[in-house]
Amino acid sequence: MSDSRQNQGQGQGLRGPGMSGGPGRFAAMGDKAKNFKGTMKQLVIYLKPYSVTIIFVWALAIISTIFTIVGPRIMGMVTDELVAGVARHFTGTGVIDFQKIASILFMLLGFYIISALCAWLQSFIMASVSMKVTYALRDNISNKIHQLPFSYFDTVTHGEVLSRLTNDVDTVTQTLNMSLTQIITSICSVVGIVCIMFSVSWMLTILTLLFLSLSILAITLIVRQSQKFFRAQQRCLGKVNGHIEEMFSSHLVVKAFSGEEESLKTFDGHNAELYRAAWKANFLSGILMPITAFVGNLTYVAVCVFGGIFAVRGMITIGGIQAFLQYVRSFNHPITNIANISNILQQTAAAAERVFEFLAVPEELPDPVNAKPAPSPDSPVIFDHVRFGYDAAKPVIRGFSADIEPGQKIAIVGPTGAGKTTIVKLLMRFYEVNGGSISIGSTNIKDFTRHDLRKLFGMVLQDTWLFSGTIADNIRYSNPNAPQEKVEEAVKAAQVDHFVRTLPGGYNMILNEESDNISAGQKQLLTIARVILADPGMLILDEATSSVDTRTERLIQTAMDNLMKGRTSFIIAHRLSTIREADLILVLRDGDIVEQGTHKDLLERKGFYAELYNSQFAGQTI
Q1: Which of the residues in the chain have pLDDT under 50?
Q2: Which of 125, 182, 306, 588 could make an S-S bridge to 414, C-beta 3.0–4.6 Å?
Q3: DSSP states of 136-189 as a string?
Q4: Which helix (H) or strand (E) covers residue 311, if one does?
Q5: CA distance 150 to 559
Q6: Which of 124, 97, 109 is nearest to 181 (CA)?
Q7: What pLDDT is recorded for position 241?
Q8: CB neighbours (10 Å) of residue 13?
């Protein structure tokens, strides 16, 4: 299989949400979705297969919360029993009933154990659900990437797609894993605590709610102010990270042109802007808890004062005051949680919206239902008045026509922007023609599946691509089942065997992520070996020797000449010395063939090709 081999996900539909087997930029604090309700409805579709499980998790959360919030009330019962026992002891009417107190404490311990078990079980189950939903989202995005037309990636950066696959999905995952249970837990806590507080003392409860309104007002005002600064912080962070990445990837150029001072100046500007936004955001966020704690302390003091008065008047027991004070202490926590969760849901909707926008992008045209059998490599290739433009209003190919006979070596030459590489992309159906047709044999290439069409070709591009792994695995990428001896034969044919054997580890040497532990020319040689191993029916060479020196180019040319024997080959070249032996040279200019013929014929015509050639080889003997 060649470098242009069909992606595994090609032609497959997206997997349904929740199927097993089968987080744009990171969602900034305060980011809001354009369509919150619509996005959440789409997210619910992914959760629908687990609706029973989620209901069960919520039931566990309710049970856990109930058993937790009754704890202070039961402790109040213990206190009341102790006070009553002490009173009986001093009046001589009885003693402290330690057995009753012990039974109450054992009941409380049982409640806390049940609460802990329910909390553990709900976390375990929700982790499984969130991971399955995450798997489905990432699986759908991965499949979607393989089904998108190449034109989509002309307008969207790879980093943006990667961010949707990682950051945005991670944001959704964290919400599913934590917030779904926290929502029900916090609501149950608030309702349960208020109900119990009313059962203890309705007057103290009203007093507490009055102070609570101050806390809620403070939280609302601070969150509204902090949101804009958190958004600014994320934007500034993006600028800083982008600048650092750009400078790091272009470090050699920065050094070569002494651009360090300008780079530092730009970085300092972005960093200062980030500092101002981050300071304000984190300051406002940081004072949230002190303010709520202050209001909570005021509430605590008020309850102590009025609770003491009510206790003296016999309106509340000492155990009731103790329980009430514990509830006051714990009341702010679920309220703050609810405020945070509402903000988190906005972030989640923003992240999920970007994911669903990506999944809704129109896909490339599907393969025909009744596709023709795979084309034969011994068939002619016919371009019939092909028209194409990346932008329909700006055509690149205006009326390209050519008949390529089986086994011919076809060279495509012309100035930059003439449409040379575009012709090959159309042949591989990376893009669809706007007009005219391309046929192999008597069959339009649209009647083949993309997999069958692309498997016919072996492709060596000007931009090399090697992944992190051994040299042998990189070469074997085109033919995963090839034995080691076949790999070595391909490497020898590419004139690179000696170089590989001199490396530490030889064929088992690990190439790093950027493959920069070998030279650009060596990478090109390895990609050529990869195509040789694929043994394709037709060849496409796009500036295949552009990164090698003259001596290596001659060796490669010999190897490629042997490889191209009997195969239809398309050679895109700027270095015209590599295509002198071509059977047919197509000279492109502004998307049209202006000349065609052999190297010798075209020179004798003294036309456009002769101008191109002489501009490269002026003064050299032909």
Answers
A1: 1-30, 619-622
A2: 588
A3: HHHHHHHHHHHHS-HHHHTTS-HHHHHHIIIIIHHHHHHIIIIIHHHHHHHHHH
A4: helix 288-312
A5: 32
A6: 124
A7: 72
A8: 11
